[in-house]
Amino acid sequence: MLKKLFFTTLLVIFTLISAHLLIETSAQVEEPIVVNIDTLGLAFIQINGTFIGSEYLQCIGEPLYIYSFYPSDLVTYLDLESKTILLMATSDQPVNYNLTYVSLVAKPVDTNSWVSQLYVPTTTLFILPEGSVVKQVNPPPRETYKIGNKIAILVNPGNITISYVLPSAQPPPVTSPAVTSPFTSTTAQPATPKTTYIAIVLVIVALAIAVYYLVSRKRTSKGISDIEAYLDDRDRAIINYLKEKGSATPTELMEATGIPKSAFYRRISRLEKLGIIEIVDLGMKKVYRLKEKPS
């Protein structure tokens, strides 16, 4: 009887411990990384997690800079060379953190087609630009669904390729109403086939020029506003100084903006990748200047 009671008690204790471990394990399951891509191939990448002491995060794509993090006393360091982010806690207690960084994750194939070829270290949710159409996801995703007018693609860890097409403006249909004149009774002569062909070609060329002009203006203005969302006060200080002076050496820029050398070259690299500035080699020295926009 005592033996049976002992084994029953042992079974109950084992069951309770297993249930407790299961609950604890469930609590440690972290959300997928969220990669929110814009029309320039840049993305805000959001990570929620827990760590003790310190942790290295493998970045997705070509990281540019850390956008925000929580808690505010969290120590963060982005290494552009190794494409990693170091997190360090200020205590020995577990830290629940939220981190967002900006990275280049997609590149254009042609005018509207884009491809994203990446390695993701854990389960990741890609959110494509609004109105995009998916061409291919390889390997197949775990799940695909819509968030408003955006396509969301949930993928497993590993190498992933996503091809998609951005929405493009469609020109309105053009109609040519027939024109009759009440002031003449002369019978109109039918146009010769050669004249008709020339007229059609001229209309097509005029439409093509108009559409190209409208699309170019739309893309240029949209690109500038999108890029401005990624700039902070120090970025703007560099840009404003170059606007005023035309060009400047690294030393001149650091003295004018007050940006320390340790952070200066990371910012310059980011602005260069965003297509805002360019490096000009003058033989004995290199200077930076604002990149000329195509007319």
Topology:
Elements: H1 2-27, E1 33-37, E2 42-51, E3 54-58, E4 62-70, E5 75-79, E6 84-88, E7 95-104, E8 107-108, E9 113-120, E10 124-127, E11 133-138, E12 143-147, E13 150-155, E14 158-165, H2 193-228, H3 233-245, H4 250-257, H5 261-273, E15 277-281, E16 286-290
Parallel strand pairs: 1-10
Antiparallel strand pairs: 1-2, 2-7, 3-6, 4-7, 5-6, 8-9, 9-14, 10-13, 11-14, 12-13, 15-16
Low-pLDDT segments: 18-29, 169-192, 218-225
How many beta-strand runs?
16
How many discrete domains? Answer: 3
Structural class: alpha+beta
**Spatial strand sequence of the major β-sheet:** 4-7-2-1-10-13-12
Report the β-strand fraction as a percent range.
Answer: 25-35%
* Gross morphology: flat
**Percentage of residues in helical conformation:** 25-40%
Put simply, the count of helices is: 5
- Radius of gyration over all CA atoms, rounded: 29 Å
**Alpha-carbon distance between the two ends:** 94 Å
